[in-house]
Amino acid sequence: xxxxxxxxxxxxxxxxxxxxxxxxxxxxxxxxxxxxxxxxxxxxxxxxxxxxxxxxxxxxxxxxxxxxxxxxxxxxxxxxxxxxxxxxxxxxxxxxxxxxxxxxxxxxxxxxxxxxxxxxxxxxxxxxxxxxxxxxxxxxxxxxxxxxxxxxxxxxxxxxxxxxxxxxxxxxxxxxxxxxxxxxxxxxxxx
Amino acid sequence: xxxxxxxxxxxxxxxxxxxxxxxxxxxxxxxxxxxxxxxxxxxxxxxxxxxxxxxxxxxxxxxxxxxxxxxxxxxxxxxxxxxxxxxxxxxxxxxxxxxxxxxxxxxxxxxxxxxxxxxxxxxxxxxxxxxxxxxxxxxxxxxxxxxxxxxxxxxxxxxxxxxxxxxxxxxxxxxxxxxxxxxxxxxxxxxxxxxxxxxxxxxxxxxxxxxxxxxxxxxxxxxxxxxxxxxxxxxxxxxxxxxxxxxxxxxxxxxxxxxxxxxxxxxxxxxxxxxxxxxxxxxxxxxxxxxxxxxxxxxxxxxxxxxxxxxxxxxxxxxxxxxxxxxxxxxxxxxxxxxxxxxxxxxxxxxxxxxxxxxxxxxxxxxxxxxxxxxxxxxxxxxxxxxxxxxxxxxxxxxxxxxxxxxxxxxxxxxxxxxxxxxxxxxxxxxxxxxxxxxxxxxxxxxxxxxxxxxxxxxxxxxxxxxxxxxxxxxxxxxxxxxxxxxxxxxxxxxxxxxxxxxxxxxxxxxxxxxxxxxxxxxxxxxxxxxxxxxxxxxxxxxxxxxxxxxxxxxxxxxxxxxxxxxxxxxxxxxxxxxxxxxx
Lengths: 191, 584
What we know:
The complex is a heterodimer. By secondary structure, chain A is of the alpha+beta class.
């Protein structure tokens, strides 16, 4: 299919029934259609019968449109929202075990302080730092610590929440060149 | 009142209105078969291989409009069933498949005849369930039938661990089904329907392109009304055959890779293309960037994910074909109250003349021979002999395409073929399911010698269950479609396609208690077909045909629909076809 737009990262929130096998349905959908998931996190919502998945997927408009429609087609999926172009807050958590020789301990602690990272484990030769933030902030922290020698690094997937008083996020604007045009039902968001 | 899980399953089937199931017993489903022993009102047809149970359920479902049901055991039975599930998935056929599973405490232990059934069927079903609590049996079975038969229909799989079937539970039967995560949209958006009507009323070169969705939605009457009201010519996909009478003057027959010249040309040159319950499959579109390049496309489909998947759509209408077509007819009556502009009228007149010219100059055609039977002739004779009033089923291959081209389909729900998945061996078991749904009616399976061999064991089922399916084997001694591709695209390097005349089909039929007939000359074809139809038993009619016959027109994969090859190609055409080959 011809496409006039470049692939970019999309952050998609998916509300699903909190049932056995749902994660595998979602993961299977992406692998079966050759889409790549860059990050995925899952957790219960206020309503314990509903889980929320946050997916980060790279693709052009066609891929993302098809991916969201296919997600919505899964029987256990309640709602799909593409938050990419909405005002939102995104956070990720990272745990970093970094070499801490006497010569650089102070430097690491200073860096941690700047990034509001916390030291959660200390040995004579290492620190474990915990930091939260958006992807850019965490990347910057990692880059600064890299020269000290990072032994191990663990990141959660991204979690995202829309800004503003409403819990409900409106559907994103149709792409500039409308293809699915003005039928609000076509993309298939449950609301 | 408490009862065994197995009994609950049967009670639920009964409440669901099921009176016929196709199945094959085994360890994990023994409790259900025990309950079936004295259960009233449920006929069980014992197949010889599990995939056949799935295909039979498909045949039952497609021709009756009800949900087909099959029941098999765990492990290898479930994996055998996978082909039928994927087949039903791709062709949107509503079936509910029950499989046995090892007891819950053994799941994951690599127990005897264990497989991760729901893991395996997840991508090839619309939805699936593993029952872990007997109290869920009723609600799950209800939901399974609901999901299979609503929205875009499809297969649903329910996996039943043996201990759940043995233990006693209360039968829980919800009064109504409420699923917050599943609410198919049936009514098309009124604004979009109006837009579509405006486009259609002003089109100079419109074409209707209709698929299996029209049949699933039972929208053939609305479709005919629309076509006749607007006088828009209409082409059908392989799955859509029967949605519109082929002998209707507006019919352009089938389109696509082996479609008619006039259908493909009409679609290519159209200015407005109205797709109804069709999904722009690659066998229909050919090279997508060359498909209907000048057309504004209206797409009516119940599945939002079908829209703009392969081809960019201008006016999407998500909804049930029947409801949307009815509204579209209303909207068009409104639009057509005013006289169309003279330019539109003149455009339509020229378009009709152009189409008539294509139809006259490039009909489906083949070379007649007095010595060797031409396969197309066999299909024509079947079509004439039945008057389009028989249930027709096919396998997959050349015979399937010739049937689609030469059989004059009249009615919906009288045609079953494996369109999306292309499952060889689909013919006989599916025909069995059709026959079981329609006792006393004529069911003809037009099959190939390669395709038929993949499920010929079901002759035993036909014989023992009293299912007098008629099979016509278009016998060309090989995998004809593969041979055709090797001939045209792979420079006649014939590789692994010969099927010597083994078995002897007449004797095989007799070995299974059926009637076997053989034809080798063109003059014998019609008498043999008449004899076959008048025989009350299952029949195999072995028709030895010209093995060099190819299906034309043909669009080489990767080619545009305008690159149709109309007759056995010259060396240059073959070289060109080989070059245009980009996929498959």
